[in-house]
C-alpha cells in the first residue's frame, strides 16, 4: 500500500480550483505529490495507524452550525473517516464558532508554522447522504448538528466519484445487521398519518447508511416556485426548467489596489422564458431528524430575474474552466409595463 494507480489518481485530484483563493497552509497541501501526499496524510491527519487514504477532493463546504459561511476545504476519504482540512480564514469568519472550534492553538498565527483546522467525521457516525439536484452538491449527516456538512462540488462528476468511493469504503465496515422487521398489527398499519408527500428515493447501503436522491417532485416544486416569482404570468404546465447549476456571481470590487472581484454563490435557473439567480439554502433541507423548528430562511430566495427576450448579448471569456459568462440585458426602465403587454401588436 498504496498502489501506483491510487497515488497517481490522488496526485491528479490534488488541484485547487483556480478561481478560489486558499490560505498558505492549503497551498502547501496542494503542492504535495504522490508518496509525499500519502506520508503527509499519515503523519499529520490520520487518527488511526492502519487506515488507508482512498480519495481526495477539493470542494467548498458548508456547516449546519454556520450556514452562511462557505469555506474551501481539502476533503480526504479514508477507510475510517472523512477529513475536512479547512481554510484558516474559516476560524475567524464567525465570532459564534468559539464553541464549535477549539482555539487553543491561536498563538501559532504569527509564526512560520501554518495551522489548519481539520474537521473529522468518522464513518461509523455517518447516518445519511443527501444528493442535491443534478448532483451539484451533497450533504453528509451524522448524529448531531455538529456532524452535518454540505460539499458544494458544483460538478456532477466530482459528486458521483466521491459517492462511489464512499460506498466502496462503507462496504468494508463491519456493522451489526439491522434487526428483523416486526410484523405490523392492524392499528399501527392504519394509525400512522400519511402526509401525502412522496418520499425521496432512498438507497440503504449494506452499512445501513442511507443515500437519498431527489425525486421528480422536487423539480415540480421548483418550477412552481419559479412560476410564483414570475407573478403568475406564465402557464405552469408549459414552464420547463432547462438548466439548474450552482455558480458564482462576480462582483467587481472598485477602488482596491488590484482589480479584484468577489464571488457570491448563487443558484442559476434557466427556463424557456426567463433567467433567474437564487440564494439557496444547501444545508438545512431536508430537515434533519433532530431539528425542532424549521430553518430561519426559505430554501430558495430570489436574488435576480430577467426575461430572455430582454437579453441583448452574452459575452464569453476565453479562459479554461470555469468559464465566465456575462449576460447583457436591455435596460428597460419600466419592467412591469412590458410584462403586461401580452397582446400581439403585430397581428391583425
UniProtKB/TrEMBL annotation:
Residues covered by the PLEKHM2 PH domain: 114-178
Keyword field contains ATP-binding: no
Major subcellular location class: cytoplasm
Subcellular location: Cytoplasm
Classification via Pfam families: PH_NISCH_C (PF25625), PH_PLEKHM2 (PF23142)
Any one of the GO BP annotations: lysosome localization
Molecular function in Gene Ontology: kinesin binding
Domain annotation Nischarin C-terminal PH: ranges: 241-347
Keyword Cell membrane: no
Keywords recorded for this protein, A-Z: Cytoplasm
Any one cellular-component term (Gene Ontology): endosome membrane
Protein name in the entry: NISCH protein
Source organism per UniProt: Mohoua ochrocephala
Lineage: Eukaryota, Metazoa, Chordata, Craniata, Vertebrata
Gene from which this protein is expressed: Nisch_1
Amino acid at each position: 500500500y498504496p498502489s501506483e494507480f491510487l497515488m497517481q489518481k490522488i496526485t491528479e485530484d490534488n488541484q485547487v480550483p483556480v478561481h478560489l483563493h486558499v490560505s498558505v497552509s492549503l497551498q502547501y497541501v496542494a503542492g504535495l505529490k504522490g508518496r509525499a501526499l500519502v506520508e503527509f496524510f499519515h503523519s499529520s491527519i490520520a487518527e488511526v495507524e492502519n487506515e488507508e487514504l482512498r480519495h481526495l477532493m477539493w470542494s467548498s463546504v458548508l456547516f449546519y452550525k454556520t450556514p452562511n459561511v462557505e469555506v474551501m476545504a481539502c476533503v480526504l476519504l479514508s477507510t475510517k473517516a472523512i477529513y475536512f482540512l479547512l481554510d484558516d480564514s474559516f476560524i475567524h469568519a464567525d465570532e459564534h464558532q468559539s464553541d464549535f472550534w477549539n482555539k487553543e492553538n491561536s498563538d501559532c498565527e504569527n509564526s512560520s508554522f501554518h495551522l489548519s483546522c481539520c474537521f473529522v467525521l468518522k464513518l461509523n457516525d455517518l447516518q445519511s447522504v443527501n444528493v442535491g439536484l443534478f448532483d451539484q452538491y451533497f450533504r453528509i449527516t451524522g448524529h448531531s448538528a455538529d456532524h452535518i456538512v454540505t460539499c458544494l462540488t458544483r460538478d456532477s462528476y466530482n459528486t458521483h466519484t466521491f459517492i462511489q468511493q464512499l460506498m466502496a469504503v462503507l462496504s468494508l465496515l463491519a456493522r451489526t445487521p439491522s434487526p428483523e422487521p416486526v410484523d405490523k398489527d392492524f392499528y399501527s398499519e392504519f394509525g400512522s398519518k400519511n402526509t401525502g408527500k412522496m418520499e425521496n428515493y432512498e438507497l440503504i447501503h449494506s452499512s445501513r447508511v442511507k443515500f437519498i436522491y431527489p425525486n421528480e417532485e422536487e423539480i415540480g416544486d421548483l418550477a412552481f416556485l419559479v412560476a410564483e416569482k414570475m407573478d403568475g404570468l406564465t402557464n405552469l404546465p408549459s414552464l420547463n426548467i432547462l438548466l439548474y447549476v450552482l455558480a458564482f456571481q462576480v462582483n467587481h470590487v472598485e477602488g482596491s489596489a488590484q482589480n479584484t472581484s468577489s464571488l457570491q454563490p448563487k443558484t442559476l435557473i434557466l427556463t424557456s422564458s426567463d433567467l433567474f439567480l437564487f440564494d439557496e439554502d444547501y444545508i438545512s433541507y431536508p430537515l434533519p431528524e433532530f431539528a425542532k423548528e424549521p430553518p430561519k430562511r426559505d430554501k430558495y430566495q430570489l436574488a435576480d430575474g430577467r426575461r430572455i427576450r430582454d437579453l441583448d448579448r452574452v459575452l464569453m471569456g476565453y479562459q479554461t474552466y470555469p468559464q465566465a459568462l456575462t449576460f447583457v440585458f436591455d435596460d428597460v426602465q419600466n419592467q412591469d409595463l412590458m410584462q403586461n403587454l401580452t397582446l400581439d401588436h403585430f397581428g391583425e
